[in-house]
Amino acid sequence: MSLSLDATQLDRYSRHVILDDVGPEGQKRLLDARVLVVGAGGLGAPAIQYLAAAGVGTIGIVDDDVVERSNLQRQVIHGDGDVGRKKVDSAAEFVANLNPDVDVERHELRLDAGNARELIADYDVVVDCSDNFATRYVVNDAARIEGVPVSHGAIYKFEGQVTTLSPDGPCYRCLFPEPPEPGTVPDCASTGVLGVLPGTVGCLQATEAVKLIMDVGDPLVGRMLFYDAMDLSFETVPYARNPDCPVCGDEGIDSIEGIDYAAGCQIDAA
């Protein structure tokens, strides 16, 4: 792997390069990396912003939505002039203005069982910034089959959670074998969300992705980090791989065909 950085890159990433645990090799790893961000909303916005600033060479963005004015309280890569635009376009323009080293691959679609494996297989890390359980289970299942790590984040009102799903560690279904009943967990449109909360959680997700790319530090594998913005507290809770997990257990699946993610996400026993 060539470690050559041009003069502009040495200047841009100088605070990385002088870190003993990063150096020019770590920065080159970032520039060569491909990261897929699922969702360009509250969590995706800060994740995209800091991944681009760090010099992740290729960022894929999956989102089928458009910018609404109510998004702007927390989705910091979109501005008032972007209202009505496709989020993938607004996000790509933001990244281009921030760091010309970064290529953005726009996927204006909803990630689902029909496209997830093909999309995820083309990237080194997935940052799951989705806002619904069906997509989270699709991401988990497809990424596990394809051997791609996932940085997962979720928020609710004043609280957030982050964990990293490694191909050799426990998966999302080890934590949550089944999603909650429909309607029991309201979204932010009906309950509200503190605007700065997704900034904190999305930055933590980006941090985990950068660590995975550079192979440094101790990622949140088998650990769920809970953040409470009201009293500014963090708590880490360990969790283990379930040998009976239908995805990562001893007899895990090798396909997501036939799983109805719209109706409960259950995996029937073979």
From TrEMBL:
The keyword ATP-binding applies. One of its GO terms (molecular function) is nucleotidyltransferase activity. SUPFAM superfamilies: Activating enzymes of the ubiquitin-like proteins. GO terms for cellular component: cytosol. PANTHER family: ADENYLYLTRANSFERASE AND SULFURTRANSFERASE MOCS3 (PTHR10953:SF102), UBIQUITIN-ACTIVATING ENZYME E1 (PTHR10953). NCBIfam families: PRK05690.1, SAMPActivE1UbaA. This is UBA/THIF-type NAD/FAD binding protein.
